[in-house]
Specification:
Elements lengths: L1 H9 L2 H9 L3 H8 L5 H13 L3 E6 L7 H18 L8 E5 L11 H18 L4 E3 L7 H14 L4 E5 L5 H8 L5 E5 L14 H17 L3 E5 L3 H13 L8 E5 L4 H9 L4 E7 L4 H10 L2 H13 L1
Parallel strand pairs: 1-2, 1-8, 2-3, 3-4, 4-5, 5-6, 6-7, 7-8
């Protein structure tokens, strides 16, 4: 319930202005978003990879209303690729993109998003890394999967994200668990109706395990997107049962959440990738992080009381 309220606030211009103006906001946002520009993010990339971690980077911003903004989003990712190139990190530093940012919701949006994201995927491949297509609300997924399929024809390493709380996801996982695929499984963070999504936490957790088992038993490369200690343990056990080596799957967690666990998993020999966002249009991303884990709202509230 609280998560739904926060998601509604993420779409409110009034709440955006109110939260953005709060004196404590920058301090709290910095916990999740370590910079606004590519110049800010490069030292973060160097620090995290130097500690044995891997990254997937997201240039935040989804409220695209013009084709020019979609092109600007494309160019922001191309600048990121250029800055990553001399670091020679290969797949240790990949990128995550939301097709809404590339114009998916505009007239002719499917073709527009594909045209804008392809140069980013090409540039990533040229420096030895790849791109993962993030999942958004359920109305966008058929388009996202179609773009994913099209990109994989030339760039088979292109990944995608599936969301455990959607009723369709078990079927999607069976289709995607093929040789060469890269699939990140998350619980899901959008306010979806009961007609298309599980509503209760225990139902979502059970679905997550079922889908993860399908991915682990398949021939692709599963990416476990979760901070839940129980699901992380289950993921390790499912990988063991499937006979997977530590480099045949990975864990992914958000920058700023359970950072010590990032290091622990990496020290145990697991591939641990940190989802690291940056940019000036942080509001929607920040609010969804609160919705995913409402306990983060308590952190925000405490900070407000002590710093306001």
């Amino acid at each position: 319930m609280l998560g739904s309220v926060i998601l509604a606030a993420s779409r409110s211009d009034r709440m955006r202005r109110l939260i953005s103006a709060a004196p404590v906001t920058k301090q709290v946002v910095d916990r999740f978003i370590p910079g606004e520009t590519v110049d800010d993010i490069v030292p973060v990339v160097e620090e995290l990879t130097g500690r044995g971690l891997e990254l997937t980077m997201d240039v935040v911003g989804e409220d695209i209303t013009t084709p020019a903004q979609a092109v600007a989003a494309r160019d922001a990712y191309l600048r990121l690729v250029e800055r990553l190139k001399p670091l020679e990190l290969g797949t240790r530093a990949e990128m995550s993109v939301k097709l809404s940012m590339f114009g998916q919701a505009l007239p002719g949006g499917h073709d527009l998003a594909l045209a804008n994201v392809r140069p980013v995927v090409e540039a990533a491949a040229a420096i030895g890394t790849t791109v993962t297509l993030d999942a958004e609300d359920h109305t966008t997924l058929d388009s996202m999967f179609a773009v994913h399929e099209e990109l994989r024809r030339d760039f088979p390493q292109t990944g995608c994200v599936i969301q455990a709380y959607l009723l369709r996801t078990e079927a999607d996982a069976r289709r995607l668990a093929a040789a060469g695929s890269r699939v990140r499984l998350v619980k899901g963070a959008y306010n979806e109706p009961a007609e298309v999504a599980y509503q209760q936490k225990h139902e979502i957790d059970k679905a997550y395990v079922r889908v993860l088992r399908t991915l682990m038993e398949g021939e692709g490369y599963p990416m476990i997107g979760s901070h839940d200690p129980r699901l992380i343990s289950i993921g390790q056990e499912l990988a063991r049962r499937a006979g997977r080596k530590p480099d045949e799957y990975e864990f992914q967690m958000l920058y700023g959440i359970r950072s010590e666990e990032h290091l622990r998993l990496a020290a145990e020999g697991h591939r641990m990738r940190v989802y690291t966002a940056y940019g000036t249009d942080w509001y929607g991303y920040f609010m969804r992080r609160l919705a995913e884990k409402p306990a983060n709202l308590l952190f925000f509230a405490r900070s407000t009381l002590t710093k306001g």
